[in-house]
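Late entry, written up from scratch paper. The run itself happened at the end of the previous shift, but nothing got recorded in the book at the time, so transcribing now.
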Amino acid sequence: MKKTGKAAPKKQAAKTTTKKPAAAKTPDAVPPKTDAAPLDLATLRERIDGIDRHIQELIGERAQFANQVGKAKGKLAAAVDYYRPEREAQVLRRVVDRNDGPLNDEVLVRLFREIMSACLAQQEPLKIGYLGPEGTHSQQAVYKHFGHSIHGLPLASIEEVFQEVEAGHADFGVVPVENSTQGTIQSTLDMFLTSKLKICGEVELRVHQHLLSRNGQIEGIERVYSHPQSFAQCKAWLRQYLPRAEKIPVSSNAEAARRARSADDSAAIAGISAANVYGLKSVAGPIEDRPDNTTRFLVIGRELFPPSGNDRTSLMIFIKDQPGALYHVLEPFAKHGLSMNRIESRPGHTGLWQYAFFIDIGGHVHEEAMRRALDELADYAQEVKVLGSYPVAIA
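Output as recorded:
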C-alpha cells in the first residue's frame, strides 16, 4: 500500500514536467532507450559528459536563486540567520520521495545536502562546534548533517561545545546523546539541566570501529587506546583477539589515534577517518560487536525553529513527589495521540533524591496537540522545560 500511495503523485508530476524540452535543448543528455541497440563506449561517455554539463548548469542556477533568497531576507547579522533546518528537512524528504533508484536514499540525501551546504556558504560558512580533535565520529556527524561547506570547531569536551555555542563563538554544536549498543551519554543529558540551548536537529550515524596502529600489525600490540564507549562496543572482539592488551580510556577516539601513532606496540580503536588524519593503518575492522551499531547526535543552537512536518520534541520534566505522578505526566500525550519515543531519568541536581525525566515525543511544540498536552501537565509536573522541537533524522 505504501508503494501505491507513493507512485500516484509521481505519475501526475510526469504530466506537468518540463523534462522533454530540457532534453531537446541538450540532446546529448538524453538516455538511450532500453530496447535500443547498445551504444559504444565513446557514445556513452559523450552522453555522460552532456549530462554532467547540464547538472553543472542547474547547480549554478540553484546557487544563484539561493543567493537571491538571502538578499530577499534582507541584511542579517550572521550566517546562522540564513539557516533554516525545517526547510532543509522538507527538501531532503522530497528527494527521498522522488527517488526511484538506482542510487539509494542515503547517497542522494548526501549529494543534495552538499549542494545546499555550498549554496548557504555563499553568505558565510556556518561555524559548527563538535567533540574533537579532528577525526572523531562527531566530526563525521557534523558533515553528514551540515555538509562540508562549513567551518568546523573541534573542542575538548561536550561541556565546551555547549559553552562555545552559548557564547556565540559557534553557530551550532553537535554532541552525542545515545548509542544503540551502550545507551545514553550521560554527560550530554546533564548539560541540559542548566543550559539554555535548544535542540535544533538530530543525526543518526552508523558507527564502524577499526583497530588502528602505526605498522598495521596485530602482533606485538600491548596497549589499546579508545573512548570508553568504543571499548564497550568492541569488548567481545577485544576479548577474543587482544585479551592481554592494556585498555587505556581517553577523551575521544581521535585522541586515541593521536597517541597510537607514537609507538609500534600501541593501537587505537577509532573510525577509519582517524587513520587518514593521523597516518595510521587499519589492523582490523569493522570490529564492533553489533553490525547495526548506531550513535544518535543532537544539533544544539540558540533558538527554536518552526515545524518541518515530521518532528520530534524533547522535554525535561521535574515531577512532583506524589503517587502516580509519572503516569499522570505521560497520560496527556497518549490522550492527544502523541507517541513517546524515549524516556530517561537523571538526578535533578535540585535536591536529594530528586530526578529529571528526559522524554522524546513525536510532534512539534507549536502544534495544537502538543500544546494541549503540555497545558495539562501543570498539576503533576513541578517544572517542564522544552529542550527543542526539531526535524526527525533523514537517511
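Residues 41-72 form the longest helix (32 residues).
(Scratch paper discarded after transcription.)
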